[in-house]
Specification:
Length: about 80
C-alpha cells in the first residue's frame, strides 16, 4: 500500500480530500450514525477506485480490491497535496 509516514498530522487534510471527492451531500446528521455513514461511504469509494462495480448482483469487494483502491487513492491524495501546499 505504501508508507504512510508522510501523512504526519494531516488527518484534517485527508478529511478535506475525502469531502472534496464527495459528489452528493446528504445533509447534516449528528451522533455515531454520521461516523458509520462516513466510514461506509469511504469504504464504498475505495472499493470503486479498486475496480468494484457496486452492483447488487456482484460479490462484495475483497482485500485485493481495497488494496488497489487504496493505492489509487494514495496517488490522488499525493497529487492533491502537491497542488495545495
Amino acid at each position: 500500500m505504501g508508507d504512510y509516514r508522510w501523512l504526519g498530522n494531516d488527518e484534517v487534510t485527508l478529511d478535506k480530500v475525502i469531502e472534496s471527492l464527495r459528489v452528493d451531500c446528504q445533509g447534516h446528521l449528528e451522533g455515531r450514525h454520521v461516523l458509520a455513514i462516513r466510514l461506509a461511504w469511504a469504504a464504498w469509494l475505495i472499493a470503486r477506485l479498486g475496480g468494484w462495480s457496486g452492483y447488487q448482483s456482484q460479490r462484495p469487494p475483497g482485500i485485493v480490491t481495497f488494496y488497489r483502491g487504496l493505492q489509487i487513492f494514495e496517488g490522488i491524495f499525493l497529487g492533491w497535496k502537491l497542488a495545495h501546499p
